[in-house]
Amino acid sequence: MDRDIEQLNSALNSVKILRSNVRRVFESVSNGLRADHGEEIKENRYILELQELLTTVNNNLRDVENSVANLTPPPGAFNLGNTTYLSQETTQDRQQLYGQLVNSYKWTDKIREYSALAGNILASNSFNKTYKTFGTTKRRKTQTSNHNVPPEIIENLITSIDRLFSDVTITASRPFVPNPVIQVALGRVLRAVIAFKGLMIEWVVVKALSEGSDVWTESRYKVFRKVTENCHAAMCHFHSPLMPDLAVRSFMHWFHSYITLFSAPCKRCSKHLHSNLPPTWRDLRSLEPYHEECK
């Protein structure tokens, strides 16, 4: 059993190395001739570079075939439980249930993973404390809920944020009275729809300027969907029940760094594009841009 697991790990590592080197081939083809190829006979150097990369990919493919050949085939068919009866359906609509079932399992796995990450972040920002003096428990003064605050306090917070940045335009509306929803136009780069619940940010959606302002519909562009995911992570990071106004200002300072989304290169690889995407992550402290793979 242990030997089978080792062979499976070896095969998976071979596939991982093959995918990595294939990506290097496509990156070299997409970048074309570069400055480090020199001024003279740079075409020949570029061709030699491609030949070396393709030779490496060919060797990796041979390693994958050898690793797969060493694997022990399963003794029989996998037990799919009651899902095996889906193949007996004659109607086309019901035959598609299996694919939908697989997608639902994948979605559930992602929800479980993201929930675990969010739980760890919120646990690290916990402010629950117990004060004991001479064997007795001293109760803390009850804090005012950050969800139920007068609208004037929220309006003052939004106004103060609007004055912080000259290249940011904020438009507020109240579809869920008294909790506002603001549209933040970051120059001519992007637009964010931020929903508040009292003094706390509850939801963020980042879209292109040409897209609608629906708070529940994600952007059709992958770059803005990535920025939305990172905004959710930053929203949990800056969460502070004791200082909600400072948490909102800190989040907005971090979000304002996306003004250079399409102009600033990655701090680590010094490239503007990686996997056809600009640096969509901003460091939570230094606000420096990074690609998802470089952070």
From TrEMBL:
GO terms for biological process: regulation of transcription by RNA polymerase II. This is Mediator of RNA polymerase II transcription subunit 27. InterPro entries: Mediator_Med27 (IPR021627). One of its GO terms (molecular function) is transcription coactivator activity. One of its GO terms (cellular component) is mediator complex. It comes from Rhynchophorus ferrugineus. Keywords: Nucleus, Transcription, Transcription regulation. Belongs to the Mediator complex subunit 27 family. It is found in: Nucleus. Its main location: nucleus.
